[in-house]
């Protein structure tokens, strides 16, 4: 399913008029695996559940 803003005639015309400047990749309306914030939240949740919480927070989002 595409977001409404991605398929409006104005958006489609603008992208078509500037093919050298834009490439469009239609993503699902919600894909948590593609969102870095969600990945970081998953690390925090796993750390809290495992009981290995540190005060530095350095483990969050390091990779």
Short recap of the structure:
This protein has helices at 9-17, 36-50. The radius of gyration is 19 Å and the shape is rod-shaped. 38% of the residues lie in helices and 0% in strands.
- Low-pLDDT stretches: none
Element pattern in H and E? HH
- What is the CA-atom radius of gyration, in angstroms? 19 Å
What is the mean predicted local confidence, pLDDT?
Answer: 75
How many helical stretches?
2
- Tally of extended strands? 0
Alpha-beta content class = mainly alpha
- Helix proportion range: 25-40%
Shape: rod-shaped
Distance between the termini: 30 Å
Q: Report the β-strand fraction as a percent range.
A: under 5%
Q: In total, how many domains does the architecture comprise?
A: 1
Most strands sheet? none
Task: Describe the overall structure.
The chain has 63 residues and is mainly α. It has one domain. The chain is built from 2 helices and no strands.
What attributes characterize this protein structure?
63 residues; mainly alpha; 2 helices; 38% helix; rod-shaped
Secondary structure: elements and pairs:
Layout: H1 9-17, H2 36-50
